[in-house]
Every structure is written in C-alpha cells, then in structure tokens.
Design goal:
Rna Polymerase Sigma Factor, Chain: A; single chain; mainly alpha; 9 helices
Length: 200
Amino acid sequence: MGTGLLSNSGLSAEAEGKVLERARNGDRTAARELYDRYSGYLAATCSRFLPDQRDQKDVLQESFVKIFTSLDSFDYRGEGSLKAWMRRILVNESLKTLRGKRRSEPVVYEEDFRDVAAEEEVEPPDVENVPAEVIHEMIKGLPDGYRSVFNLYALEGRSHKEIAGLLGISESTSASQLHRARTILARKIKEYIEKVKIKR
C-alpha cells in the first residue's frame, strides 16, 4: 500500500489528511465522514466522564461544533493526531459540564484525609478475565469526583498537578480521589469475580 500507515480511523494518514483538507474547505461530505468515523469513539470517551445520556449528547454536539469551527487552526501531524485533538476538545467540554454541575449541584471533592489514610488497602485484582464493558460500567458508577480524577489520571495520562488545575482542586485532593476510586474499583472487581466463580 502506497498511501501510508492506517490511522485509528481506518484511513491511511494520507487519506485522512485529504478528508481533513476537504472538510476545511467546506466540503460537507468530508465533514460528515469525519463525524461518522469519530463520533462513536468520542461518545464512548464522553460516557466515561458523564453518566447522564442527555449530558453526553449535549457535550458531543458542542464538541463537534468546536471541532468543525477550529479545523483551520489544527496542525495535522499524521497518524493519530486528529483523533487525539478531537479527544482533547471532547474531554475539555466534558469537564466544563462537570464544573457547571459542581456549581449547581454539590460534587464531593474535598476529603477528610485521615479517613483516606485509615481506609483499608485493597490489593489490585486480576482483571484479565473481566470484560472491558463491565469495568467501564464500574467506572461510570463512581461518584463524580472520583470518576473525573480516575479518568484524567488513568485514561488521559494527566498528572495530579494538571488534574488539580482542570478541576479546581488541590493536588493532594486529586491523589486522595484517585486512591478512593481505585479502592472502590478493586472491591467491585473482586465482588464480580467472586460472583462469576459462584455461578460456575
């Protein structure tokens, strides 16, 4: 194949670059192609931050508005760069919605850190035989503060310093939230494994 490596969208980097250029020039068919290729992936990413489907729909729509109005400023760097750029926009919009909810609905971020220190440590379970969709549902079921920090740290690769800035919390609170999230997930995964064993 002379068109280069396949990108995560299924297109070669060269072909994806051409679709992107057409979309920049106002080609609605190209814009639709980008939407069709990435909307499912971005919707799944959004659901990790926002469990409410109405919020997901609103954030996805707003994200694509920003994506398509910002195409001219995006510097395409080949394979994976478009997907990563779209994801960053989607995550930022998700966090904006969470911050809005935080103002109107109390979201627990601050902790009594003595409770965290005293909390029983749970050894990380073996997740090899736990379906990804099951773990995904467990993450979605975490309290908003825990879920946000866990996703940003574990899935987005953000540091506690970055998370603190994004969520308006302290770095120690971010670390505490991550610890709590991991503890809850470890317990849920162990419970799931035990239930599966019993059924067998």
